Amino acid sequence: MSKSNNKMSVWQLTIITVINMMGSGIIMLPTNLAQVGTMSILSWLVTAVGSMALAYAFAQAGMFSRKAAGMGGYSEYSFGKAGSFMANYTYGVSLLIANVAIAISAVGYACGFLGKELSPISVGLWTIFTLWLATVLNFKGARVTGRISSFTIWGVIGPVVGISIFGWFFFSGKLYASAWNPNHIPFFTAVSKSISITLWAFLGLESAAANMDAVENPKRNVPIACLGGTIGAAIIYVISTNVMAGIVPNAQLLNSSAPFGLAFATMFNSTIGKLVMGLMVISCFGSLFSWQFTIAQVFKGSAVEGYFPKIFSKITKDETPIIAMVIITVIQSMLALMTVSPTLSKQFNVLVNLAVVTNVIPYLLSMASIRVMQKSENVPAGRAKVTNFIALVGAVYGLYALYSSGAEALTYGSIVTFAGWILYGFVSHKFDLKKDDMMDRVA
């Protein structure tokens, strides 16, 4: 089998980008946003601008970068191998954590669909089973992953598009207005609180860049997938979550473990509500499935660069890093057990907050490297200025998102990041000593 025969098309990469954002992020969004109220639409505007700025910058980076390994390659332009390592390391840690949270979300939604209640330990064990199932299904490589993702995305697209179109027939402007700020949270506090919630929904906009080694014609297709996926997700997010707030009372949304199922049950009947819940379970698993593939690609790219152990770079005849997938899933299984909490939502929130913080680090490194990247690739000055400004907007948004994540998440995220610098010390001799030797010879 030739390499090109097992590459994803631009459509499949765009689908993976969309499902990485939507598949798990949107199913609990209405419940999370209900904590703030319908004034969270202001946070959507801020996040939409910030996410589009990030996506545009990543699209440009995909066109001009001559370095592999996605965001690690982008970061290398300004920060050298140390910055490249940190981008790959923090992104890899973020995905490790986020995938466990997605698996927990899938288990929780499935419990709601089946009407079952599980103990904390049972949730942990079913989470581990879900992680391993997603891993094993990825063993056949990129093209199979793309095909399965193209199917599972409809589990969320169907209900979300349905409520975005037909939900207006059940929409109550009075109900929407009454939920504007139900908890009387100060304006800037409310906006900041929902910023971190909406950012979680957009995590994944960079996944097209992370999969650049697994797609046909990456110079052309990565930018298309980045921008197309982010624009599509932004439109769907804003419309669906806001129309739902005018259908279901805020208090009911706040206490729901399956908000889309609740909305469809309110609009039609409980049977349709159950059907929607089932579709959302499929979508959530599809998101986990795509992310398990993406994280294996990140670890593989890091191993090829010499950052991670070489064992992560070993591939099968289908060009699949199975050994990396197995090691990653073992680590995730331990995380699932280590974070077992009295309630599923508490365990989910702990993981999500840490995932958001660690995910922003490679965003910031990449945005800061855009200027040097364009100079090194002789991008015309006019075009470079526009991209540099947009990258700066994305970076400012990233800093604001870190601030909005809260002190606890920042503390743990900082510890994880500082640990990365220590780990770099164990591999830096592969890069820094070579430079020193060359300088000595020149001298």
Fold and architecture overview:
This protein has one domain (3-428): Amino acid/polyamine transporter I (Up-down Bundle), CATH 1.20.1740. The chain has 19 helices and no strands. The protein is globular, with a radius of gyration of 21 Å. The protein is mostly helical. 78% of the residues lie in helices and 0% in strands. The longest helix has 44 residues, at 71-114.
Helix content: over 70%
Model regions low in confidence, pLDDT < 50 over at least 5 residues: none
Number of helices: 19
Average pLDDT: 83
What is this structure's SSE topology?
Blueprint: H1 10-25, H2 29-33, H3 41-64, H4 71-114, H5 120-137, H6 142-152, H7 154-166, H8 173-178, H9 187-202, H10 207-210, H11 218-245, H12 250-254, H13 259-267, H14 270-305, H15 322-338, H16 344-376, H17 381-404, H18 407-427, H19 429-442
In short:
78% of the residues lie in helices and 0% in strands. It has 443 residues and is mostly helical.
What attributes does this structure have?
Amino acid/polyamine transporter I, 443 residues, mainly alpha, globular, 19 helices
